[in-house]
Amino acid sequence: MSQQLNTSAPLHPEHQWLNSALGRYLQQEEQVLYDQAVVDLFGFNALQIGCLQMDLLRSSRIANRYKSTEYMNAAEFPHLYCCDDFLPVADASLDLLILPHRLEFSERPHQTLREAERVMMPEGHLLISGFNPLSLWGMALFLRNLLHNNDAAAKTFPWNASFIGLGRLKDWLALLGFEVISVQMCCHTPPCEQESWHRRFSFMDKLGAKWLSAIGGVYFIVAKKRVVGMTPLKPSWKTAPVKPNLVVRPTQRKPSQRGHVE
């Protein structure tokens, strides 16, 4: 029996914000990075968690591509409805896992990363995008929290998130056995809601990518799950080579004829 989706369900704040001018700018910048990264990653199963308005697996060559979210939305049709800190996925079953802006909105980001490590295959790839607190976007979050400290209504998406620093996230990944392959930055323009201001500050993307890449509004991480294995032993070329045992050498003299004469 097919399950019908409730078309009267309201849109999630994430979906509404991604439809805004600032949200569309974010999608445009991040989509390029994801398309470039997933096209050269191979395997059998891939999963994107959240931000379903962006098809971040569209350039992937992996045959089985899935999407999941934790809330029901009339505009999205995921394969799974689940929380990102407890995934209904078997151990070591995913070759590619994508977490677009999940950690800063997760109630337990450490547990979300632990789940990511559990469900991923050895040598599998983990792709993460997050808001950089050391940027104009992070400054905007700081000012909003300062001005609206006790006003929960003023903290709308995405300013109700807890931005995680890039260095801190790298430490978490290292503790879980992930190796950071590459880090890229995007969204160098100020987070203005008006599209006209985006056009005025569009030059900052080119300027920031060349000179101030570290303070981009969004970081994009490509990490690989490493598994500790056997350490290969290298031969010691300084020692003398082993003598071949093909030549039989006598251990005692043959008895002479004189010895047998009585």
Automatic annotation (TrEMBL):
Can you give the residue ranges of the Methyltransferase type domain?
81-128
Instruction: Name the InterPro entries for this protein.
Output: Methyltransf_11, SAM-dependent_MTases_sf
**Molecular functions (GO terms):** S-adenosylmethionine-dependent methyltransferase activity
Annotated GO biological processes are: methylation
Check the record and name the Pfam families matching this protein: Methyltransf_11
Q: Which domain of life is it from?
A: Bacteria
Going by the UniProt record, its keywords in alphabetical order are: Methyltransferase, Transferase
Recorded hits in SUPFAM superfamilies, A to Z, give: S-adenosyl-L-methionine-dependent methyltransferases
- Cleaved signal peptide residues: none
Is the keyword Ligase in the record? no
Q: Which residues cross the membrane?
A: none
Protein name per its UniProtKB record = SAM-dependent methyltransferase
Origin organism is Methylotenera oryzisoli
